[in-house]
Design a protein that fits this description.
Chain lengths: ~325, ~375
């Protein structure tokens, strides 16, 4: 009885007794979810275009932001460092296409997955080798990102909104909008969609797959850079991000592997639900449930709706 | 010249279906076992650096080889991708620790083997989704297993007997009248116990793989629909692969704590270890037992060489730099092997043997 109460009644009573705290929790979860959505977006971009499940997306986030901070620490002005980092991500995309994707064309997708795990190892080593492995502080102010916070009175309590979080949500929204325009209005964007639809048909109308792959990895690299800046500004620039980024896998399962709106919505759902569960139910299990909760939700999704919320139904059954 | 099977006639079914049908292979394997059971312990016992050689290289190599065999059963033979190996080794380790602390008079070797069954049970539970999904999707469920179990190892204090440090600490354990595990155990004894268990379990694995169960795994791997049409039950095949794989991982994990680390925390079973075992399988060769040994040796010994090589030729290098270079080399090698030789070192070994068969007259 006690247990049932603490599962089904207590948390809800807590929620409604302090509504402003609930709003605070939801906001935190929403921002967290936006970042998951951004990482998942990088995954989806690559998966749609090349069918590769890019395990290295998490480390690409770390690598991009390490390069940015490393360049700044080496004395390069912040704006130039940003441009140079974008350049580095472009070179990286071309290199990956040449060295990893091209020799592995037409391989089984598990092989490609493992290749990206190897790539993740390599980037992790290279990033630490070049820029140093210690945690770094994000250059938030130098990039012109706002700091500080404002309070709002909602339901008689005070809710804090970090300016940085607001900026993160806005920038994420802008990025998604820019990608949407890029995909629907530009020549390259249309080529990308053609490749995502059907590789062979795209090849037969003269679209260069290699070029498209490099571009799409570059796009994912930029998404990674933006994600990394946001994440780094919220905490620190560290390799712990790599493990957190794996959560995007769970997000993808929930949203569907091939759907960009799915990735975004699922990311936000995961962020919200995870935070709510951690705050209101986590104490029942001793806390720290954030580490695995998303995966268990994904597991349940896999059992009942394997294609995710918006994905194409492609799962083969035996 | 030396590796010819000419004149070796198989006159009955028994000799035809032997594990090593060629005499040279039998001699070779006997030599390897002799090396592992006599030469290495003698060196470890007599040499001044023997203690390090056994504790730092040979014991972890043997244990990792066993875990790699476990993962290879699942990935190489049954074709199910798993990223939760680290957690499954952890299940074995914690199970063994609980068994030993609850029943102190239990023989440690029995406890180590029994802990495999706990890992197998957990493996079956997390293998259940494999009946509906495969490939990348399955990887996510094993990832769920990894993170959930890692969390459980920290939060469920009963598992480590409410020790404030949260670590598994191995006391001195006696079996057959000698101390075989713990701080004051002799490295040679520990090595011999580990090696005997590994050899025994490799022998079991090679026979299971050759048998009906192993062939059903390979059929599921190669084409699941065809396998089902021919009467292989996917449920039984997949779950038995998960069970046996996790059993091996569990035994490996228990040995890792009791015969190698001596004290372990949850970090010894984290996702990086899962990746490590995955790399051992890929570099060694998927679907090959000898490849499991080669992969384990390669991934384990290479960093040690990278660590000591610069010092011996007189270059000063930071330990952290070594770590980073090591990551880069391993990562690069993974991509290289997948692109150039997807079947790993085992395939290279096989090619070498084929060359050797016709050597020195390849055109004769």
């Amino acid at each position: 009885m006690e247990l049932l109460h603490s599962i089904f009644i207590g948390p809800f009573a807590d929620m409604f007794s302090d509504l402003s705290f609930l709003i605070q929790v939801l906001w935190e979860g929403f921002v967290q979810g936006t970042l998951y959505a951004l990482i998942a977006l990088g995954f989806v971009l690559i998966f749609k275009a090349s069918g590769v499940f890019n395990f290295a997306q998490g480390i690409m986030v770390v690598f991009a932001v390490l390069a940015l901070v490393g360049l700044y620490e080496a004395g390069v002005p912040a704006w130039l460092a940003l441009i140079l980092t974008i350049g580095i991500m472009g070179l990286l995309a071309i290199g990956i296409e040449r060295v990893v994707l091209r020799p592995l064309v037409n391989q089984h997708d598990a092989i490609l997955l493992m290749a990206t795990i190897g790539l993740a190892r390599f980037l992790s080593g290279a990033g630490q080798f070049i820029f140093g492995g210690e945690n770094k502080a994000m250059i938030t102010e130098e990039l012109g990102l706002p700091t500080g916070s404002s309070e709002a009175e909602i339901f008689g309590g005070v809710v804090f909104f970090e300016h940085l979080d607001i900026a993160a949500v806005i920038i994420a929204g802008l990025l998604v909008a820019a990608l949407a325009v890029f995909f629907s209005k530009t020549r390259i964007g249309r080529a990308l969609r053609a490749v995502a639809d059907d590789h062979q048909a795209a090849l037969s109308v003269g679209i260069s797959l290699n070029q498209i792959w490099a571009i799409v990895w570059f796009a994912a690299g930029i998404v990674a850079l933006v994600t990394g800046i946001m994440w780094g500004a919220r905490s620190d620039v560290s390799f712990a991000l790599e493990i957190i980024a794996l959560k995007a896998l769970a997000v993808l399962i929930i949203g569907g592997f091939t759907s960009i709106p799915g990735a975004i919505i699922a990311g936000i759902i995961v962020g919200l639900v995870e935070k709510l569960f951690e705050i209101y139910w986590g104490s029942l299990l001793g806390g720290g449930v954030e580490a695995w909760f998303a995966y268990i939700v994904a597991l349940i999704f896999l059992l009942f709706r394997p294609q995710g919320l918006f994905g194409e139904k492609i799962i083969e059954r035996v | 010249m030396f590796y010819r099977e000419a004149g070796q006639f198989k006159t009955d079914y028994k000799s035809d279906s032997a594990v090593f049908p060629i005499l040279q292979d039998r001699v070779g394997i006997a030599f390897m076992i002799f090396l592992a059971l006599v030469v290495v312990p003698l060196y470890g016992w007599s040499s001044s650096s023997g203690e390090f050689f056994l504790n730092g290289i040979m014991i972890p190599f043997m244990i990792f080889a066993l875990v790699t065999i476990g993962l290879n059963i699942l990935m190489g033979y049954a074709g199910q991708l798993s990223l939760g190996t680290g957690a499954f080794t952890g299940v074995g380790a914690y199970a063994c620790y609980k068994l030993i602390t609850h029943f102190p008079e239990l023989n440690l070797i029995v406890a180590v083997l029994m802990s495999g069954f706990f890992a197998a049970a957990v493996g079956i539970i997390f293998g259940l989704p494999s009946l509906r999904i495969k490939g990348l999707y399955l990887a996510v469920t094993t990832l769920a297993a990894q993170f959930f179990l890692e969390w459980l190892f920290i939060r469920w204090e009963w598992l480590y007997n409410y020790d404030p440090s949260g670590a598994l600490i191995v006391p001195d354990i006696t079996a057959f009248g000698i101390i075989i595990a713990g701080p004051s155990a002799n490295a040679v004894v520990k090595y011999l116990v580990v090696t005997l268990i590994v050899i025994f379990m490799t022998w079991i694995a090679s026979n299971v793989i050759r048998g009906r169960i192993g062939r059903s795994w390979m059929m599921i791997r190669d084409m699941d629909i065809a396998a089902e049409l021919m009467g292989v039950r996917p449920l039984a095949a997949k779950l038995s692969a998960f069970a046996m794989s996790s059993f091996y991982c569990g035994v490996g994990g228990a040995m890792m704590v009791f015969f190698w680390l001596g004290a372990a925390e949850v970090e010894s079973f984290d996702i990086n270890h899962s990746f490590l075992f995955l790399f051992m399988v890929i570099i060694g060769g998927m679907g090959s037992l000898i490849g499991s040994f080669m992969g384990a040796a390669f991934i384990w010994v290479l960093p040690i060489i990278i660590k000591f090589l610069p010092a011996t030729i007189g270059i000063e290098i930071y330990p952290s730099t070594v770590e980073h270079i090591n990551l880069m080399i391993i990562g690069g090698l993974i991509v290289f092997f997948l692109a150039v030789e997807p079947n790993g070192l085992a395939r290279l070994w096989q090619l070498a043997k084929e060359k050797l068969r016709v050597w020195p007259f390849p055109y004769a």
